[in-house]
């Protein structure tokens, strides 16, 4: 019961607190069923509801998971709101609905959740669940970048380097690529390596990634 390295790229440190609980149970051979039963009997607490949903999510019980995520999100649980968005976007346990996914991502983004802010930027960039709007994409990438999201830093760097309608700033683009790489994001590492080996790379190759 672990979160993948790809998922970790999307999250900043403070977002792991709840998910680490499940990993702790797994790493220390704590009986998962006992934990699940305990959570099942503690569904007043939003954190418990979310964790119960996450247990179901990682075991592919997606229909139960999204119902629990929705329950927790109605109690204003930020991470649950993000996971509801992910379920709707990808059709996990429900019919795929990109517009509804955007609405849930936006709830989390408006509560200063950096991962959701980065995803909202990507939605505006690609026109996923919302009308395409590069200025709004830039706005949300910038907010997510300022909040430490390493993928948003990479994507914002792409905007500063090559997006039409955005004033180009190659020094800022390079700085953001470096911050993304220093944070461990593979896309940032690749572009930064290309920049060092070929200075012209900073002027081309617009690669936008999600979240």
Automatic annotation (TrEMBL):
One GO molecular-function entry: kinase activity
Name of protein: Kinase-like domain-containing protein
Key words, A-Z: Kinase, Transferase
Domain of life: Eukaryota
Species this protein is from: Rhizophagus clarus
UniProt cross-references to InterPro entries, sorted A to Z: ISR_Activator, Sel1-like, TPR-like_helical_dom_sf
């Amino acid at each position: 019961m672990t979160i993948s390295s790809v998922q970790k790229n999307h999250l900043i440190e403070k977002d792991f607190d709840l998910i680490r609980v499940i990993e702790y149970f797994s790493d220390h051979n704590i009986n998962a069923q006992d934990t699940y039963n305990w959570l099942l009997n503690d569904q007043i607490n939003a954190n418990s509801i979310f964790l119960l949903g996450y247990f179901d999510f990682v075991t592919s019980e997606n229909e139960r998971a999204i119902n629990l995520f929705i329950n927790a999100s109605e109690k204003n649980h930020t991470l649950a709101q993000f996971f509801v968005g992910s379920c709707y976007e990808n059709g996990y346990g429900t019919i795929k609905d990109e517009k509804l996914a955007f609405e849930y991502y936006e709830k989390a983004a408006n509560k200063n959740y950096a991962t959701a802010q980065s995803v909202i930027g990507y939605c505006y960039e690609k026109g996923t669940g919302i009308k395409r709007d590069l200025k709004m994409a830039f706005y949300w990438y910038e907010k997510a970048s300022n909040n430490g999201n390493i993928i948003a830093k990479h994507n914002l760097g792409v905007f500063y380097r090559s997006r039409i309608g955005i004033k180009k700033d190659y020094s800022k683009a390079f700085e953001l690529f470096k911050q993304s790489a220093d944070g461990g994001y593979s896309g940032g590492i690749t572009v930064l390596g290309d920049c060092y080996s070929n200075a012209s790379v900073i002027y081309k190759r617009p690669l936008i990634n999600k979240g």
